[in-house]
Write a structure and sequence with these properties.
Distance between the termini: 24 Å
Strand order of the largest sheet: 3-2-1-4-5-6-7
Number of domains: 2
CATH class of the largest domain: Alpha Beta
Radius of gyration: 24 Å
Mean pLDDT: 89
CATH architecture of the largest domain: 3-Layer(aba) Sandwich
Structural class: alpha/beta
Low-confidence stretches: 1-18
């Protein structure tokens, strides 16, 4: 009987690899302890401490044996969850036996994933990157492959996948200049994580260069799937009902401000032209109350719905609102997943997180609905898409939203021209979802599940 001789070099390597996650766990624990006053206060102030802590510790649903393969998507928040819709549909059409699991980190992302995918697919909470939480999570979900959206590469998770022979890829990859600068400072530590990625399907050549500099070996430029998710259509189901709920007057001009950031609500309310209605949908729930402070007379969607629950007889009657001569006609969408309905009502759309020093938001969804779009000068997270639309004349980039709103509302021909140009760019750039699906299907075909 053959007995393998002990190899001291291999033994040292095994011992080192086994200890690396533990050292990282220690670093996480120390960092969390030192910064606990900051993040603890933030969790308490925003209410985010009310979360699925068991899920964050890796207690995902134990999945049963499955004859086909299991593909796990990691989508950190609402935007990443939304972008997977077309890709998941494409993959399951190609392989009906493929089991899809969607993991999300944030509370809003998880809620959105349940809403979109819950009836058909499994939705779980993505674990904290402690080795024990990751190990428990992977043992319960048992994926054959993992696709992480945009960037989300956590060292312990990637290492655990490598140990189990689970290929991991990046889809719709994005690495901004500011994130790249941070990663580059710790390249010696983060490089092995990037190096273990099976492939990175990224949006632009600039992103590809950054992934490669950080150690990724197989990087493909396939554009962004957001072009495909920007459906070109004129109407959105439920938009008329939303207008009726809020009491929006469809005979008067409507500006919709989507994904706004702190302070932009006040800026837009102050700049609102006379006689124009403003629908505001902040990017994050913790920013909802600021709109009411900036405009105490605003109509709040959840309040309207609560009043109707108290009076069921009024549930089918449109909200009536008496406005004074000097009142600002402002409506607050303080829910998740209804911004598209609001966009469908707009004469002009202002895309937020772009006027006061943040990094922009998605401009493609309102453009796909045929709306003239305004965005501020700070949009580095969406630089490529904004540049493409600006070159084609399909968007207005400005530091003065009030002036741009008045210009488009007063010159409807110009507004229609911008809307048509924006749609044309979207139509020209679509196709990334199918390219992503090709890469993922090839990865799954090459993977052989380890023997139990």
């Amino acid at each position: 009987m053959y007995v393998e001789q002990a190899n001291p070099i291999r033994q040292v390597a095994k011992t080192y690899n086994a200890r690396v996650p533990n050292l990282l766990d220690l670093a996480y624990a120390i960092g969390a302890t030192l910064t606990s006053p900051v993040w603890g206060l933030s969790l308490w102030r925003t209410g985010k401490w009310r979360t699925d802590w068991r899920g964050r510790y890796g207690h995902a649903k134990q999945l049963a044996d499955h004859p086909g393969k299991t593909l796990l998507f990691n989508a950190v928040s609402v935007g990443e969850v939304n972008i997977l819709r077309g890709l998941i549909a494409e993959l399951t059409e190609r392989d009906p036996s493929l089991r899809i699991v969607v993991a999300s980190t944030t509370n809003t992302g998880y809620q959105r994933a349940v809403e979109i995918y819950g009836p058909r697919y499994t939705v779980v909470r993505y674990p904290l990157d402690f080795s024990w939480a990751v190990s428990r999570f992977l043992g319960r979900v048992r994926p054959d492959a993992v696709a992480t959206v945009e960037l989300e590469l956590w060292p312990n998770f990637v290492e655990a996948c490598a140990r189990r022979g689970i290929p991991l890829c990046v889809v719709n990859g994005r690495l901004s200049a500011r994130s790249f600068r941070r990663y580059r400072r710790v390249r010696a530590l983060i490089g092995p994580t990037f190096g273990r990625v099976a492939f990175a399907a990224v949006q632009t050549q600039d992103y590809a260069a950054r992934f490669e500099q950080l150690g990724a070996k197989d990087v493909r430029v396939v554009d962004t799937m957001k072009w495909d998710n920007a459906k070109i259509e004129d109407d959105v189901q439920g938009s008329a009902e939303l207008a009726a709920e809020l009491g929006v007057d469809l005979t008067k001009p409507i500006v919709v401000a989507g994904s706004t950031g702190p302070g932009e609500d006040r800026l837009l309310i102050e700049e609102l032209p006379e006689g124009v209605q403003l629908i505001i949908a902040p990017r994050k729930p913790e920013w909802f109350d600021a709109v009411m402070k900036a405009c105490p007379g605003a109509v709040r969607l959840t309040s309207v719905r609560a009043e109707r629950q108290d009076d069921p007889a009024a549930s089918s009657v449109p909200t009536q609102r008496s406005w004074g001569a000097d009142d600002k006609r402002v409506f607050l969408i303080d829910t998740i997943g209804e911004l598209r309905k609001a966009y469908a009502l707009a004469d002009v759309v202002v895309v937020g997180r772009s006027f006061l020093g943040l990094y922009g938001s998605d401009v493609m969804e309102p453009a796909g609905l045929g709306k003239p779009v305004i965005i501020g000068p700070h949009h580095s997270d969406f630089q490529d898409t904004v540049d493409a639309m600006r070159v084609a004349g399909g968007i207005i980039v400005t530091h003065d939203p009030g002036k741009a709103m008045r210009e488009l509302l007063n010159d409807r021909d110009k507004a229609r021209q911008i809307a048509r140009a924006g749609r044309a760019v979207i139509a020209q750039r679509q196709g990334s979802t199918k390219r992503h699906a090709d890469l993922i299907m090839a990865m799954l075909a090459d993977h052989r599940r380890p023997e139990a």
